[in-house]
C-alpha cells in the first residue's frame, strides 16, 4: 500500500513538473530561442556593417602600401567586432536569465557597483585603452616604424590597446603605456630624408664642391642596393653655416621609410673618398694660441 502511494505521489509530481516544463517551453522557452537567434543575427549584421563602415571610413594615405592599409583596417575591424560581441552576449545573457525567473535587477546593480569600483581603480588602464584606440584609428605609427616618445626611441615591435613595445639600438625593450605618451615623433612615416651637414675648408671652391656633391649623390642613386631605397638623389641644398674653422653645407635627399640611416652612412663614405680625390679639405677644429711676449728687464 505504501509503495502504491509513493508511486502515485511520484507520478503526480512528475506530471506537475512536466506540465510546468511544457508551459515554460511554450512561453519562456520560445523567447529564449528567439533571443538566441536574434543575438546571432544581430551579431552577423553588425560584423558586416562594421567591416564596410571601417573600409569606407579609413582613407588610404599617399605613401601607404595596400598591405599596410589592409592590416590597419583588419585591426580596427577586430577591435570593434570584439566589443560588439561582448555587448551582445552580455545583453542577451541577462534577457535569458530573466526568462528563467532570475531577478536581473540585483545583478545589474552589482555590476554597476563593481564597474564604479573598477572605474576608480582602473582609470589609468581605461585611459591607456582609449588612447591606444585613437593611436590605431589615426594610424600614428605601425609595427616596424621607428618612433621617438619624449626621451625614448626605437623600432615598434608590438602595438596593443594598452601599450606599445619599442626596441632601441642597444636591443633594450621598452613597454610604454599609451596613457603616458605625450608626443609621438615618427621617424619612418611614409618616407624618410637624408639630412647631412658637412664642413669644408674656407679655401674650397664652392662651385667645384657643389658639382662633386651632386655627382656623388647621383652615382649613389644608381647603384645597388641603394637605388632601390632612394626616392630622390642626395644633392647640395645650401651653405648652412660659417663655422669657426669650416663652411658647413647641407645635403638633402629622400629615401624609403627607415632607409635614411644606411643611405646617409654610404653617402658619407663616398663623399670622403671623393673629397680626398678632388683635394677638398674636411677641416678639424683648430685652436690658435697666442703667447704673450716675455717682459724685458733693463740691466743698469
Automatic annotation (TrEMBL):
Mechanosensitive ion channel transmembrane helices 2/3 domain mapped to chain residues: 84-123
Keyword Magnesium attached: no
Chief location category: membrane
The keyword Transmembrane is annotated on this UniProt entry: yes
Residue spans crossing the bilayer: 32-54, 75-98, 104-126
Membrane topology: Multi-pass membrane protein
MF term (GO), any: mechanosensitive monoatomic ion channel activity
Span of domain Mechanosensitive ion channel MscS C-terminal: 194-282
A GO cellular component entry from the record: plasma membrane
Annotated Pfam families: MS_channel_1st, MS_channel_2nd, MS_channel_3rd
The entry's keywords: Cell membrane, Membrane, Transmembrane, Transmembrane helix
InterPro entries on file: LSM_dom_sf, MS_channel_1st, MS_channel_C, MscS_beta-dom_sf, MscS_channel_2nd, MscS_channel_C_sf, MscS_channel_TM-2, YbiO_bact
Compartment list: Cell membrane
Top-level taxon in the UniProt lineage: Bacteria
Family of the protein in this entry: Belongs to the MscS (TC 1.A.23) family.
Matches recorded under PANTHER family: MODERATE CONDUCTANCE MECHANOSENSITIVE CHANNEL YBIO
Protein name per the record: Potassium transporter KefA
Organism the protein comes from: Flavobacterium faecale
Amino acid at each position: 500500500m505504501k509503495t502504491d502511494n509513493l508511486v502515485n505521489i511520484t507520478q503526480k509530481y512528475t506530471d506537475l513538473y512536466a506540465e510546468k516544463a511544457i508551459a515554460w517551453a511554450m512561453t519562456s522557452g520560445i523567447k529564449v530561442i528567439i533571443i538566441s537567434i536574434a543575438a546571432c543575427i544581430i551579431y552577423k549584421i553588425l560584423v558586416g556593417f562594421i567591416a564596410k563602415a571601417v573600409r569606407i571610413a579609413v582613407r588610404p594615405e599617399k605613401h601607404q602600401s595596400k598591405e599596410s592599409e589592409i592590416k590597419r583596417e583588419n585591426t580596427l575591424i577586430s577591435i570593434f567586432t570584439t566589443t560588439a560581441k561582448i555587448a551582445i552576449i552580455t545583453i542577451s545573457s541577462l534577457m535569458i536569465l530573466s526568462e528563467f525567473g532570475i531577478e536581473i535587477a540585483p545583478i545589474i546593480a552589482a555590476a554597476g557597483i563593481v564597474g564604479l569600483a573598477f572605474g576608480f581603480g582602473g582609470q589609468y588602464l581605461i585611459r591607456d585603452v582609449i588612447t591606444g584606440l585613437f593611436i590605431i584609428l589615426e594610424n600614428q605609427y605601425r609595427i616596424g616604424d621607428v618612433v621617438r616618445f619624449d626621451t625614448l626611441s626605437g623600432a615598434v615591435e608590438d602595438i596593443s590597446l594598452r601599450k606599445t613595445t619599442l626596441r632601441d639600438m642597444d636591443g633594450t625593450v621598452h613597454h610604454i603605456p599609451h596613457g603616458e605618451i605625450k608626443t609621438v615623433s615618427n621617424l619612418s612615416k611614409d618616407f624618410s630624408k637624408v639630412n647631412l651637414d658637412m664642413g669644408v675648408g674656407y679655401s674650397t671652391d664652392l662651385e667645384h664642391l657643389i658639382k662633386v656633391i651632386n655627382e656623388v649623390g647621383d652615382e649613389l642613386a644608381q647603384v645597388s642596393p641603394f637605388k632601390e631605397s632612394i626616392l630622390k638623389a642626395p644633392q647640395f641644398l645650401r651653405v648652412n653655416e660659417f663655422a669657426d674653422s669650416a663652411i658647413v653645407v647641407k645635403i638633402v635627399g629622400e629615401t624609403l621609410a627607415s632607409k635614411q640611416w644606411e643611405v646617409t652612412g654610404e653617402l658619407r663614405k663616398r663623399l670622403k673618398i671623393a673629397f680626398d680625390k678632388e683635394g677638398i679639405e674636411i677641416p678639424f677644429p683648430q685652436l690658435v694660441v697666442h703667447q704673450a711676449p716675455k717682459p724685458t728687464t733693463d740691466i743698469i
